[in-house]
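pls design
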């Protein structure tokens, strides 16, 4: 049945291929016609209209040409009104080509057709003939090859005819004046059209008959497939059916009937008691075999039950183990997720802390540099002030020495004056009676000298007091200078210590950065102790203390600077007052010496 299906499928495929080839040829002819239309020039005395569309009911085309030469054919499918042109037109040639192709197709179908009356006995004889189907396949393949060869020949002929038509059209284009159509040509064309119509009708009838036969064959093939399936079975293959050792049901029934007859003859020849003995022996043997089988099967059942119980226990254990492992896996996943989140947070904290430490170290370094510069500036200012004060003290010491020298001179003068007075007193006593006016003059001078002496002694006392004050101030200033030097030394020592600490912190930070870059992943237990929060807080507190100390030192330096400025002002004021007092005393002494 499947072989017959294959045959029918091949026939359908052949028909489809022929239809496709016809369509391709039509398309090719249409394209050539379009090209010819573009190249064609208008001719005189006749007009060629296009084909009108085929009617859906009749499928009868109509051709109208310039001159009214009417032709009526007996074919109902052929157009009623046909006018013959002067020469063979393009559309008539196309129609003739189509008719020729249909005639060829009809001849091919006649060759392919199989007699419907001959098929059933052939298929009935399939039970006895084994290589019939293969022979039929070979014959059909040969016919298909012949048909393909004929198709190729017809295609070559069509190509040759198309080339001839193109050459004729080119010749017609070259001819300028149109030729008149003779009556002989018209008659020939009418005869050709009649022949073509007859052939077209014959082809149509053959095509219809072939299609009807194909449908009948398909229906018969389906019935035969059903019959074969009922005889052979649903799941059958042609290779098994067509093999040499295959036997049909009828042959198998005949062979079985022969075996039954042979066995019945053997039974009739043998005696009944021997048969009964053999039957009893066979039955006892079968019973013993059945008992052995039952025992072996019971043992196998027990073993299988034991295996089932073991497998059930193992399955329960495995399920419990799976549950425990799933719980452990869930716990480990949660732990892993928490560890990953902690690791990310720790990495973020490390990055932030390292950035903060770097920022703080930069700030501390900048502050230290600023403080060092400020301290250096202050030290330079203090050194300049000390130098100025030293210069001032040297000047004051010079002034004091000068004053001491002047005081000594004044004292010497006073001693000389006192000696003169002592010398003058006895002379006055001796000459008091004789020269009175002189006594009166000397008496007038004595109070003035005494006053001047008293004034000089008071001035000398005040000068000594001022000198003592100046010495006290100088000692106080020296003490303060010593204290400031000590404080500066302490501050410098603290600055050195802080620089060392900052250098250590920078080295630690660099090490931490190197470790962080070198190790992409670090466990929480493997982190360095320097990154603990406690030490970070201690570092922050230490930095805050350093800031407070720096602020305290700055405030102390400012206070000392203000005190020194005030002391310098007081000292300058006292020096100016002493200078003014000394100038007054010097002026008075000069005036006194001038008057004396």
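designed seq:
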């Amino acid at each position: 049945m499947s072989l017959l299906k294959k045959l029918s499928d091949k026939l359908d495929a052949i028909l489809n291929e022929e239809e496709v080839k016809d369509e391709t040829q039509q398309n090719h002819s249409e394209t050539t016609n379009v090209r010819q239309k573009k190249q064609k020039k208008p001719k005189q005395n006749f007009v060629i209209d296009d084909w009108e569309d085929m009617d859906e009911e009749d499928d009868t085309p109509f051709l109208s040409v310039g001159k009214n030469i009417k032709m009526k054919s007996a074919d109902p499918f052929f157009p009623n009104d046909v006018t013959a042109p002067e020469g063979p037109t393009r559309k008539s040639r196309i129609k003739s080509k189509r008719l020729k192709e249909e005639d060829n197709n009809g001849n091919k179908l006649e060759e392919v057709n199989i007699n419907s009356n001959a098929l059933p006995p052939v298929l009935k004889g399939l039970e006895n003939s084994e290589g019939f189907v293969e022979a039929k396949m070979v014959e059909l393949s040969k016919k298909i090859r012949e048909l393909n060869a004929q198709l190729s020949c017809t295609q070559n002929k069509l190509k040759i005819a198309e080339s001839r038509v193109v050459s004729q059209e080119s010749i017609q284009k070259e001819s300028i004046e149109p030729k008149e159509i003779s009556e002989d040509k018209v008659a020939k064309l009418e005869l050709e059209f009649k022949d073509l119509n007859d052939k077209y009708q014959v082809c149509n009838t053959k095509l219809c008959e072939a299609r009807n036969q194909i449908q009948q064959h398909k229906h018969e093939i389906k019935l035969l497939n059903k019959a074969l399936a009922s005889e052979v079975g649903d799941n059958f293959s042609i290779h098994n059916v067509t093999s040499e050792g295959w036997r049909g049901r009828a042959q198998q029934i005949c062979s079985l009937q022969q075996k039954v007859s042979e066995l019945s003859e053997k039974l009739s020849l043998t005696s009944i008691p021997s048969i009964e003995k053999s039957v009893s022996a066979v039955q006892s043997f079968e019973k013993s075999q059945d008992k052995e089988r039952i025992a072996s099967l019971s043992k196998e059942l027990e073993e299988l039950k034991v295996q089932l119980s073991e497998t059930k226990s193992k399955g329960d254990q495995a399920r419990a183990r799976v549950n425990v492992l799933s719980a452990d896996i869930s716990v480990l996943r949660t732990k892993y997720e928490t560890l990953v989140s902690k690791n990310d947070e720790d990495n973020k904290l490390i990055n932030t802390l390292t950035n903060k430490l770097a920022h703080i170290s930069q700030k501390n370094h900048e502050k230290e540099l600023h403080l060092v510069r400020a301290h250096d500036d202050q030290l330079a200012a203090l050194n300049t002030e000390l130098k100025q004060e030293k210069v001032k003290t040297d000047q004051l010491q010079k002034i004091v020495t000068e004053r001491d020298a002047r005081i000594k001179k004044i004292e010497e003068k006073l001693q000389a004056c006192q000696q003169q007075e002592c010398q003058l007193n006895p002379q006055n006593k001796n000459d008091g009676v004789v020269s009175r006016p002189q006594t009166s003059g000397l008496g007038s001078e004595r109070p003035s000298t005494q006053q001047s002496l008293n004034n000089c002694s008071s001035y000398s006392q005040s000068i000594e007091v001022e000198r003592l004050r100046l010495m006290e101030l100088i000692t106080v200033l020296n003490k303060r200078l010593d204290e400031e030097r000590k404080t500066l030394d302490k501050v410098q020592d603290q600055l050195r210590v802080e620089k060392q600490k900052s250098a250590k912190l920078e080295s630690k930070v660099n090490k931490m950065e190197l470790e962080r870059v070198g190790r992409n992943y670090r466990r929480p237990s493997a982190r360095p102790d320097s990154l603990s929060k406690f030490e970070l807080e201690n570092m922050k507190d230490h930095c805050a203390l350093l800031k407070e100390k720096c602020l305290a030192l700055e405030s102390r330096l400012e206070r000392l600077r203000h005190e020194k400025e005030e002391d310098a002002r007081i000292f300058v004021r006292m020096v100016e007052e002493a200078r003014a007092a000394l100038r007054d005393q010097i002026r008075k002494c000069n005036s006194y010496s001038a008057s004396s």
